[in-house]
Design a protein that fits this description.
- The chain is mainly α.
- The chain is built from 3 helices and no strands.
- Helix 1 runs antiparallel to helix 2 and helix 2 crosses helix 3.
- The protein is globular, with a radius of gyration of 17 Å.
Length: 116
């Protein structure tokens, strides 16, 4: 079973550079890097709502009220996501997708070692 989850993780890792290139291209149209980030999050929110509705209809209900019981720092994932997307929008046109991805990967590995 772990093989399937590892494969999914690899697949997501493979498309992250594509996401960064897409977001950088969006910036060329909307100009402001924050607008490009907001477009990214809006599209993600729409998809998230659709997937959550499908999952809920198929018998996997959620509990929005329990979110208020989470510690304050659990809410910061969205802030980190916004920082990551905005950093990509700003950095990719200047240093390229490969350099950005390599720097992010090193940062992720160091952060993971610190957490573990």
């Amino acid at each position: 079973m772990k093989f399937g989850w590892l494969t999914l993780s690899l697949a997501v890792g493979l498309i992250i550079p594509l996401q960064q290139a897409m977001n950088a291209k969006m910036r060329t149209f909307v100009v402001n890097p924050m607008y490009a980030s907001l477009v990214n999050f809006f599209a993600g929110a729409v998809l998230g709502i659709v997937v959550a509705a499908i999952m809920s209809a198929s018998g996997e209900p959620g509990n929005w009220r329990r979110a208020t019981e989470a510690p304050w720092w659990a809410w910061c994932g969205g802030l980190i996501g916004m920082a990551f997307i905005t950093a990509g929008v700003l950095c990719v046109p200047r240093i390229g997708v490969a350099s950005f991805s390599a720097a992010v990967l090193v940062g992720q590995l160091v952060g993971a070692m610190l957490l573990d």
